[in-house]
Amino acid sequence: MLLSLPVELQQKIVDSVNPQDIVAFSLTCKQAHTICLKRLEEHKFLTNLVKEIPLCLAPANIRLPAAEESFFRSAGSPGLLVSIAEYPRLALLLKDLNFEEHPCSGARTIALEHAWELIGQLINASPILQNEDEVHCWLDAVTNGRGGAALGLLLSRLTQLKKIQFDVGFKDPVTPYVARAVSRLAARSQSGFLDQGLSQLTHARVEFVDDSGSDLPPDDDLSEDEEQQPQPEPVVIPEDHLQQLTRLLVSLTRLPNLRHLSLMDYASRPETADSEEIIDWDDANDPDYPLPTGPSQLESLTVDRGIISAPALSRIIEHSTNFSSFRYIVFHVPEVFGRYWNNFPEVDPIPDMTLESICTALLNHAKSSLRRLHLEISDYGGMCGCRHDPCLKPYGGYMSINPCAPQTTNWRWHEFTNLERLTLDIELFSNSKGGWLPFAKTLPISIKEVAILAHRCPPGANKLDFENMLRGFKPQIFPNLRTINAWHRNIKDFNEIGRNGPEHILQIYSHMLWEADVPTDTVRPYELDDDYFKQKRKEQLDRERASGSVKMEMFGLKEDELYALPEKDLEGTVMFGVYYSAGMSLVASGKLYDNLYIGLAVEKSWG
Q1: CB 77 within 8 A of CB 167
Q2: What is the mean pLDDT of residues 320-341?
Q3: Contact 197, 305 (CB under 8 A)
Q4: Which of 13, 150, 398, 522 has the most neighbouring CB atoms within 10 Å?
Q5: Range list for CATH 1.20.1280 in the chain
Q6: Residue 170 has what DSSP assignment?
């Protein structure tokens, strides 16, 4: 069919072939190979170019005199933007970009005047700019290294990008221009324009970094010559910077195919107790770049260390029609938990920052769609890895890190009508008076798997909570139930803390099954050794390598660690067990510990 067309039309068809398909297309027949020769040469050049230039988004801006040629030869968004302006099909080869620098064989050189001409043409032809004033505004921002304008323009050209990770800092800001660019791209996609920049983006990770440098201590090891060199001035953080961050995240969720959003070290308000309340930007603050109204295709949100407010969470997920997973590795800070001193409240938590307010926001926006919920405290340096308060008295009386929480804190899990997987840190929803409420009253009928992170070492510390969890629990009521497990730290280190095993938890499981009238002949012991978990870790690493350079999760316990039981062993079975460790810690002797699992397997005669 192709060969019967005029030569000019054949060439137009060849020019429209995606660079990743051009080699296969050229092999269809001899004539196709002939008319693809120029494209094949270009493809070879671009493939080599991808290997030679650092495919990195950092820095997002470069402040420079207009005559600084290194602006166009540098790594980062400005240099990559010029490369795409010079070779437009290069954008079609980029599917995975982040802020981590990659090794390259050498920088490209380009005539300064030609580079400025390319930048001007790119800005004038940009689909995200609507009038001459915006063209001048963006050109000025790119050349003066302001607000992530170069990164915003670059994103508008990346139609095949699948995954992205970029940093939000003060020295190299990405606001407000990246949010403006993403808003325009999302609006155009919703209006029916095809092949927009970021239209194929499915995964986005935003890492928040404090690069202001204002709190760095002086370096006593500096030489005399180094001390005499002028030091960079501290970065002045714009008052509206924090106000724009949530708007940036919301604009990402409006993209047509974004499914997964991950935030590292995010704080949706300042972490100082005397700071004023932050009100997130709305359309009135940036009327020329309104956010599209939705819907959002977002399925999962990960706060990979940090703190998030209920209003910020609501703005991010409010228009999602299929939000099914929330993972929150929360910092242990007074804004969220308050602070006690000598058993008396010293600092009250901020109401919009508490875990209760976060769960209420989830109920308001994802009551029937949420399938997976993971709430975990980010480790804050306890003496032995456990979470006592105070940490330096690990054998002292138990006090929850959330002592001011009401005893009904955790009653609402059953309101998530389709919740299947629940992961909770035992510290989050307990208090020194009453501990946890029973699973029999709190778990939804839809639940399949539960994991409780029980970091504390002495058995008495979490015994009350486990007894309360399983009091009156009848597994027969839950037709889809597969596992209820605890993750229990049990490494022996040099101060001999943490040597107790999981027996105290297994005893509570056994007592619960007896009270639930589960026949003893349907219950059998079950174990997994470290060889199994080593293989699981290897498989996990292989998956991470295959997934590309953008990692959506770095902190907390991964699902592969918490829900690692063999599928074949769960057929027709409900498992009640404990993941734990045995051996010596790295601190003590440099030896690795073994990961083990022990539990009770119950033959499932219901459901």
Answers
A1: no
A2: 86
A3: no
A4: 150
A5: 1-52
A6: S
CA–CA distance, 134 with 156 (Å, rounded to integer): 15
Q: Give me the residues paired with residue 523 across strands.
A: 602
Structure tokens at 393: 């008295």
Q: What are the phi and psi torsion angles at 301 (to 5°)? A: -130, 130
Task: Report how far Cα 184 is from the mean position of its chain's Cα atoms.
Answer: 24
Buried b (16+ CB within 10 A) or exposed e, 219-256: eeeeeeeeeeeeeeeebeeeeeebbbbbbbbbbbbbbb
H-only helix segments in 36-176: 37-52, 70-73, 77-86, 112-124, 132-143, 149-155
pLDDT of residue 589: 44
* 266 vs 228, residue with greater confidence: 266
Alpha helices in 158-219 (DSSP H): 177-190
Which residue bears the tokens 């009453």? 434
CATH of 1-52, one of 1.20.1280, 3.30.1360, 1.10.1660, 1.50.10: 1.20.1280
- Written as six digits, the tokens of 467 are 């007894």
Q: Burial, 301: exposed, middle or buried (Cβ in 10 Å; 0-12, 13-18, 19+)? A: buried
Does pLDDT of 204 surpass 90? Answer: yes
- Backbone dihedral angles phi then psi of residue 438, each to the nearest 5 degrees: -65, 145
Tokens representing 184? 């325009």
> Cis (ω within 30 of 0) for the bond into 295?
yes
Alpha carbons 431 and 400: distance in angstroms, whole number: 5
**Whose CA is closest to 494, among 380, 595, 591, 393?**
591
Residue 393: is its pLDDT beyond 90? no
In sequence order, which residues have a C-beta less than 8 Å from that of residue 463 and are 6 or more positions away? 504, 508
Query: Exposed, middle or buried, 459 (CB in 10 Å: 0-12/13-18/19+)?
Result: middle
CA distances from 97 to 77, 252, 505, 545, 557 (A): 10, 16, 45, 15, 25
Question: Which helix (H) or strand (E) segment is 29 a member of?
Answer: none
Give the chain's mean pLDDT: 79
273: pLDDT strictly greater than 60: no
pLDDT digits (tens, 9 = 90+) for 126-181: 989 999 999 999 988 888 888 889 899 999 999 999 999 988 887 788 888 999 99
Pairing of strands 344-347, 449-454: unpaired
pLDDT in tens, 492-522: 544 444 445 688 889 999 999 999 999 999 9
